[in-house]
Design goal:
The complex is a heterodimer.
Chain A lengths: L6 E5 L3 H12 L4 E5 L2 H10 L4 E5 L7 H9 L6 E6 L3 H9 L4 E5 L3 H20 L5 E4 L2 E4 L4 E4 L2 E3 L3 H12 L4 E3 H8 L8 H15 L9 E4 L3 E4 L3
Parallel strand pairs in A: 1-2, 1-3, 3-4, 4-5
Antiparallel strand pairs in A: 6-7, 7-8, 8-9, 10-12, 11-12
Helix pairs in contact in A: 2-3, 6-8
Chain B lengths: L1 H10 L3 H29 L11 E6 L4 H16 L2 E8 L7 H16 L3 E6 L3 H11 L4 E5 L5 H7 L2 H8 L4 E5 L20 H21 L5 H18 L2 H19 L12 H48 L4 H16 L2 E7 L5 E2 L12 H13 L3 E2 L11 E7 L2 E9 L9 H67 L6 H33 L7 E3 L1 H11 L9 E4 L7 E3 L1 H18 L6 E8 L2 E8 L31 H11 L4 E5 L5 E8 L15
Helix pairs in contact in B: 3-4, 5-7, 8-9, 8-10, 9-10, 9-11, 10-11, 11-12, 11-14, 12-14, 14-15, 15-18, 16-17, 17-18
Classes of the chains: A alpha/beta, B alpha/beta.
């Protein structure tokens, strides 16, 4: 027998969703703790020490964003929130409150597993305390040690801001970063309202990195929320 | 029961009662037929009198004798069992003394209480007014009072009675005597309003001037000429000023003429009797001229007054005709009534329970106590004026007039006139009623229009509901059927299905679910657009990114159609809600995929213009059928014969909602060379915000 897989705490009030997630996750060697309410979820988060938390924002007994904030007060366990389309403000609020990523209903198993893996890997890396010296995704290669960027064999010249933006995304590769987070990381905490900075520099970056900037392969837009660097 | 029946036979079904009942029934029938006949006559423009049923007209004037006439009319109407009308033809207002006016109002009120209709007409020719009214109302009998003035007045000024009798044609004219109780008709207060002192002074000055002239010219002229000069002076005064100054002028000139010029001079003695005649003529001329002048002036005032009111009424009608909407109409009518009558004006409209209320959102023009409210309610319920100055509930602070329209009373207008007595003037009361009638008709028109519009909206909503239901039941059931079928096949599978079939079934489930998800997404967007809860969160961002998101989202479905994107490098940032505009692109691209054959290209382009960015999504499909360019944006509208294309006809409606919410415009055109182009604008709202620049390094 292989060692037991990572533990997922699922906080979700809809039995249908729980049933689907239970079937999908258990068949992929995840161990599942189920909670139907926020209270129950909070108890399990403290008592059972899960590796990752899947949290539905539409719980009947509490605001999912508050719950995220509560968990973040004492735990760094990755939190992935589940929300519906059209609730971009909720997603941003959850991410700013400390959630690591989100899934938009309805989602497929592939998407769910990818998000879980990213979250678990980031948690593990944070525990190690060190970054990989190079990042590769498809043709894109970022040599963090030597501050070099390649697409295929061609070296790409970036401005300092473009480079900083790219490396911020690389550090959180696979995870969504809100406009606010990017602004804070790249431009500092005083300009977090100037969302258009991110849009403009992201466009510049795409024109240098992407083969077709209107169909980006690496620098993906999360509409209304932020950006995500595709990880492979 | 039998006992009660027996009791009824004894007590109720008596001959007398039965006859009375029969009479009641017959009378009711006669009244109805009469009303129908009058309508018929009006419709067919018949002016002669049809003496089919009796209708009585009682003419009263501004004097106490009217009370007797009213009672006589009542008696006659009762014996004839006919309708009766009390008519007051009012001469110009100044000539009626307050006492007469009070009597007139009292008589009209009494007539109403006795069951008569009342009417007031203005005008100088009493006889003609009365006859015109009688003909237009199918009157068969006219009652007038016996004249009490001396016969010579009729000879001089013409007799009302004579005019009436001669002009009455087939109408009977009854002359009723005034009874002793009334006594002689009081004389009119002489000369109307008293002339101001200045007029007396001027009159005296004119005569003194004449005297001065006479003193100078006396030595060249005869006494007759001197008298003529005085006569001229008296004539002048009489033509300019009232009766008082005229009399003063004539007495003054007589006196001065006598003392200064008539021998023996400087005494009041008169040597020759013929001078007395001269004095008499001077006095007479002064009286005649001043009376005539006064009458002309009165007529002028009356005419001006009527002219002013007519102009005011016309101004209101014209403005009302050009106004739409109940609240706007009320505002216009309120303003005009306030200006014309100097009153505080409050319109009251009935609520669902028939209680008149101040229209929502307007402050009351004057305090509306429970008592005032009940007066207004009475006016509304009975369709008759009530409140201050009327016969009903006269203690109220304001007068309330029903707003009568074709379909009945639609509301009440309350006027608090500056002085409580003002509305007692019958002419004023009639003016008020005319204004109220005008306002009522205009209001009814607006209310009907609003109701029609509401009904139209409801019909439209009903139609939408129906088509939404049919769309939903079809478009949701189809994928549900696919899911259910595929899933149950898989569930029933005992290993009979080959792997390829299993995968096929599974992917059909996934496809159907995605289709349903899109559909529900569209419906939810539609609801947001429709309910006005669409919140646009604009951020300055490049269009390229939004296009990119849409292209990635539709990657699978766009495989059959090559999409080219051409955005000029100088395209500025655009303030837009990324999520919503992405949906616009998604819907336009999905449409292109649905309606154009596979392999045909789709082109997305944008260009900056003055104050906005113009975006095109163009295809090379069959284009838009002629005449459908606008209708395709309507809800649930599907181009004829596209039943197979799927979708419920919401995509373009959502696009329009989103673009409109951004302050832009969306439309469709056919392209030269074939295909359709959907174009929309996004306003720029000023220069894009600055972005810190940097020098390229590394």
């Amino acid at each position: 027998m292989a060692s037991p897989g990572p533990t997922v705490l699922l906080i979700e009030d809809e039995p249908q969703m729980r049933r689907f997630l239970r079937a999908s996750l258990e068949s992929h060697d995840f161990q599942l703790i189920e909670a139907a309410t926020a209270r129950e979820g909070l108890a399990h988060a403290t008592g059972r020490n899960p590796d990752v938390i899947l949290l539905d924002l539409g719980l009947p007994d509490a605001d999912g964003i508050d719950l995220t904030r509560q968990i973040r007060e004492w735990s760094a366990t990755p939190i992935i929130v589940i929300s519906a389309r059209g609730k971009e403000q909720d997603k941003i609020a959850a991410l700013d409150a400390g959630a690591d990523d989100y899934l938009t209903k309805p989602f497929g198993v592939g998407e769910l597993l990818a998000r879980l893996r990213v979250a678990l890997r980031h948690a593990a890396r944070a525990g190690d305390g060190r970054d990989e010296p190079t990042f590769t995704s498809g043709d894109l290669r970022v040599d963090l040690a030597n501050r070099l960027v390649f697409v295929g064999d061609t070296e790409i010249h970036l401005t300092p801001t473009e480079y900083k933006l790219l490396t911020t995304l690389v550090r959180h590769a696979g995870k969504v970063l809100t406009h606010r987070m990017l602004l804070k990381e790249v431009w500092g905490p005083n300009v977090v309202e100037h969302t258009h900075y991110v849009h403009v520099y992201m466009t510049q970056l795409r024109h240098k990195v992407e083969r077709d900037p209107t169909r980006p392969r690496y620098l993906l837009t999360e509409p209304g929320v932020g950006y995500r660097l595709k990880e492979e | 029961m039998p006992e009660q029946a027996a009791h009824a036979v004894d007590q109720f079904f008596r001959k007398g009662n039965l006859i009375a009942l029969r009479e009641l029934a017959l009378r009711r029938t006669a009244e109805r037929v009469d009303a129908q006949m009058r309508t018929y006559m009006q419709e067919h423009g018949i002016h002669a009198t049809w003496p089919a049923g009796e209708r009585l007209l009682v003419c009263i004037g501004p004097n106490p004798a009217g009370a007797h006439l009213v009672r006589a009319g009542k008696r006659m109407a009762t014996s004839l069992k006919c309708d009766w009308i009390v008519l007051c033809v009012e001469p110009p207002a100044q000539r009626i003394s307050p006492a007469d006016r009070a009597a007139l109002v009292e008589n009209l009120q009494m007539a109403q209480e006795l069951g008569a209709q009342t009417a007031t007409l203005g005008g100088r020719s009493v006889a003609e007014e009365v006859l015109a009214y009688a003909r237009s109302n199918n009157i068969t009998k006219i009652i007038v009072g016996k004249p009490t003035h001396p016969r010579w007045r009729d000879k001089l000024f013409g007799s009302l009675l004579d005019h009436l009798v001669r002009g009455s044609g087939d109408v009977d004219v009854y002359v009723i005597t005034g009874e002793a109780e009334e006594g002689p008709v009081p004389r009119r207060a002489g000369g109307g309003q008293p002339a101001p002192a200045a007029e007396y002074l001027r009159a005296a000055a004119v005569i003194l001037l004449c005297t001065a002239v006479n003193v100078v010219v006396f030595r060249f002229l005869s006494l007759t000429d001197v008298a003529m000069v005085y006569l001229l002076g008296v004539g002048l005064v009489a033509s300019r000023y009232g009766r008082g100054p005229s009399l003063l002028a004539s007495f003054l000139s007589i006196g001065l003429f006598d003392v200064l010029f008539v021998p023996p001079r400087f005494t009041f003695e008169v040597s020759d009797v013929r001078y007395l005649l001269t004095f008499g003529v001077m006095l007479g001329i002064a009286l005649v001229i001043s009376t005539l002048t006064l009458r002309i002036r009165e007529q002028a005032v009356t005419a001006r007054d009527r002219e002013r009111r007519t102009a005011a009424l016309y101004a209101m009608s014209r403005e009302l005709a050009g106004t739409r909407g109940v609240s706007e109409l009320i505002a216009v009518a309120t303003r005009h009534l306030e200006e014309t009558f100097g009153a505080a004006v409050q319109f009251l409209l009935p609520d669902a329970n028939g209680r008149v209320e101040i229209p929502v959102g307007t402050p009351p023009a004057f305090p509306l106590s429970e008592k005032e409210r009940s007066v207004a309610q009475w006016a509304f319920d009975h369709g008759r004026a009530a409140g201050a100055g009327t016969t009903t509930l006269g203690g109220a602070a304001a007068v309330y007039l029903p707003l009568s329209a074709a379909a009945g009373v639609i509301g009440v207008v309350g006027l608090r006139l500056p002085e409580a007595t003002a509305s007692q003037e019958p002419v004023q009361q009639r003016h008020l009623e005319t204004f109220a009638a005008q306002a009522g008709l205009a209001l009814e028109r607006a209310i009907l229009a609003e109701r029609a519009q509401r009904e139209q909206v409801e019909i439209e909503a009903e139609r939408l509901r129906t088509s939404l239901l049919s769309s939903l039941s079809h478009d949701l059931r189809t994928p549900l059927g696919a899911i259910s079928g595929a899933a149950s096949s898989l569930l029933e599978d005992r290993g009979a299905l080959v792997e390829a079939t299993r995968r096929d079934l599974l992917s059909s489930i996934v496809d159907a679910v995605q289709r349903m998800n899109r559909l529900i997404g569209n419906l939810l967007d539609m609801i947001r657009v429709e309910s006005g809860s669409l919140q646009v969160q604009k951020e300055w961002q490049p269009l390229e990114e939004t296009v990119g998101v849409a292209l990635i989202r539709l990657e699978e479905r766009l495989r059959s159609h090559p999409v080219t994107v051409s955005l000029p490098p100088d395209l500025p940032l655009v303030p837009l809600d990324g999520v919503l505009i992405e949906q616009v692109f998604v819907n336009l691209l999905e449409n292109a995929v649905k309606y154009t054959p596979p392999g045909t290209p789709v082109e997305i382009s944008a260009k900056p213009a003055e104050g906005f960015v113009l975006v095109d999504v163009a295809d090379r499909g069959p284009g838009i059928p002629a005449g459908e360019e606008t209708r395709i944006f309507d809800k649930f509208h599907r181009v004829a014969g596209d039943a197979g294309a799927g979708g419920i006809g919401l995509g373009l409606t959502i696009c329009r909602g989103v673009v409109t919410a951004h302050g832009g415009r969306i439309w469709a055109e056919n392209r030269p060379g074939g295909g359709a182009v959907f174009r929309f604008t996004l306003p720029l709202e000023g220069p894009p915000p600055a972005v810190p620049s940097e020098n390229p390094v590394e």
